[in-house]
Amino acid sequence: MNSGRTHLLILLSAAMFFIGIYFFIQFFSAPGFNEVAPYEITEVPRVTKPVTPDYTTSQTYVETSSTITVPEKETQFKVNINTATKEELMQLKYIGEARADAIIEFREVNGEFKEIYELANVDGITDKMIAVNLGRIII
User: Fold this and answer.
1) pLDDT (tens digit per residue) in 44-84
2) 76-114 tens-digit pLDDT
3) Would you say 73 and 117 are in contact if contact means Cβ atoms under 8 Å apart?
């Protein structure tokens, strides 16, 4: 019985081997696989004189100055945390109504801020919020 299994495994292995060789040969003998594509070298045309635009079309061309001013994405504004109103405080990132009210209440109870980082003492204000708005906050 054991020799029967051995013979069967040998036959299956041989069959798999020959099937593999068949597919290998079929793959590499596919049309176009070994063919070398013709390679043509063409010259790039050279421009000997500048191309002038055609102004006879119906498009309007406007001459502008040589300097171009690009508007900023967002106008940088400064918020004085000692004098800002609720609406002004709400213009800062991550500062909504509740946090603006908390800043104003903290300011009324404890007096004016002496440093920007004192904002961390206000409930709901984190160091990350201060870092994000650091360039916009003044005292």
Assistant:
1) 556 556 656 555 555 544 444 445 454 455 556 799 999 99
2) 679 999 999 999 999 999 999 999 999 999 999 999 999
3) no
CATH number at residue 133: 1.10.150.280
Report how many domains make up the chain: 2
Contact 128, 107 (CB under 8 A): no
At CA 85, angle to CA 72 and CA 75, rounded to 5? Answer: 0
Q: Map residue 127 onto helix, strand or coil.
A: helix
Separation of alpha carbons 43 and 86, rounded Å? 69
Question: pTM for the full model?
Answer: 0.47
* Domain region containing 119: 79-138
What φ, ψ does residue 125 adopt, rounded to 5°?
A: -105, 125
Asked, for residue 17, whether it belongs to a domain, the answer is: yes
